[in-house]
Amino acid sequence: MDISIHATYLPHNDRDAAVAFYRDVLGFEVRNDVGFNGMHWITVGPPGQDVSIVLYPPEATPGITDDERNAISEMMAKGTFASINLATKDLDGVFERLQARDAEVVQEPVDQPYGVRDCAFRDPAGNMVRIQQLS
Question: Which segments constitute the VOC domain (predicted)?
Answer without folding.
Answer: 4-134
